[in-house]
Amino acid sequence: MSFAASVLTLYPEMFPGALGLSLAGRALEAGTWSLEAIQIRDFATDKHRTVDDTPAGGGAGMVMRADVLAKAIDQASPPGDPRPRLLMSPRGKPLTQARVRQLADGPGAVILCGRFEGVDQRLIEARGLEEVSIGDFILSGGEPAALVLLDAVVRLLPGVMGNAVSGEEESFENGLLEHPHYTRPQEFEGLPIPEVLISGNHKKIVAWRRAEAEKLTRERRPDLPGVQPLVK
Ligand code: SAH
């Protein structure tokens, strides 16, 4: 069973974009996942194919219309579609590796990309959209956010990453940031690779990496769950 992504957007040309290359691109070609980019404008009913209108109550910008978006969603995701319906939104729950993993374990996702000031609130409620943010900053549209989300999901699909183990050792998977990495040359601008890593002592290496990961996490991200209080 492959992961089926349907993206609703005013810019279908942005897809697969970066996801057509490298690991994700190869997996797309191999059928490990599928991607359908749907033009929201095709569901407009007037002759100008209008998808947005001025905000009720006044103010700057435009708002995407609930009626047009509902038609697009209902075609992409009819009742009974098991896939979660996501709305990329800076007001959403911040995306985490745990949610990414859940999505990768599921049948796919229907992803609505906002533009302008966002979408009519009634649409979010009427279609049960899960708002997802990729961080505390504002993009000009949901498309780059959808690409980010899909990139994170696709690399977890079975067979996409050559070395499946590396996925589980990654930052966030154990509630910690990852330890630092080194490779040849042995000496770079006078700096050697830490002694322990060339010791050949696997147990010591594991312990060193764990300690480095905890130190880094304590310094940079004390909010992460894997961080242990400093033993004095
Ligand atoms: N007026 C809105 C921002 C609209 S930005 C506000 O202040 O909350 C236009 C669109 O870009 C949004 O509808 C959303 O789909 C997308 N977007 C912007 N920033 C995002 C973020 N951090 N995460 C996910 N989507 C984002």
Top keywords for this entry?
7 helices, Trp Operon Repressor, Chain A, Alpha/beta knot, single chain, binds S-adenosyl-L-homocysteine, 9 strands, alpha/beta, 5-stranded parallel β-sheet
What's a quick, concise take on this entry?
The chain is an alpha/beta fold and 232 residues long. The chain contains 7 helices and 9 strands, in the order βαβββαβαβαβααββα. It has 2 domains: 152 residues, SPOUT methyltransferase, trefoil knot domain (Alpha/beta knot, 3-Layer(aba) Sandwich); 52 residues, Trp Operon Repressor, Chain A (Orthogonal Bundle), CATH 1.10.1270.
Determine the structural class based on helices, strands and strand pairing. alpha/beta
Nearest-integer average pLDDT: 96
Q: Radius of gyration, Cα only, in angstroms?
A: 22 Å
**CATH architecture annotation name of the largest domain:** 3-Layer(aba) Sandwich
**Count of separate DSSP helical elements:** 7
User: How would you sum up the global shape?
Assistant: elongated
Number of strands: 9
Low-confidence stretches: none
Describe the strand arrangement of the main beta sheet, using strand numbers. 2-1-6-5-7
CATH superfamily descriptor of the largest domain: SPOUT methyltransferase, trefoil knot domain
Number of discrete domains: 2
Give, in order, the helices and strands. EHEEEHEHEHEHHEEH
Major sheet description: 5 strands, parallel
CATH class of the largest domain: Alpha Beta
Distance between the termini: 51 Å
What name does CATH use for the topology of the largest domain?
Alpha/beta knot
Catalogue the ligands.
S-adenosyl-L-homocysteine
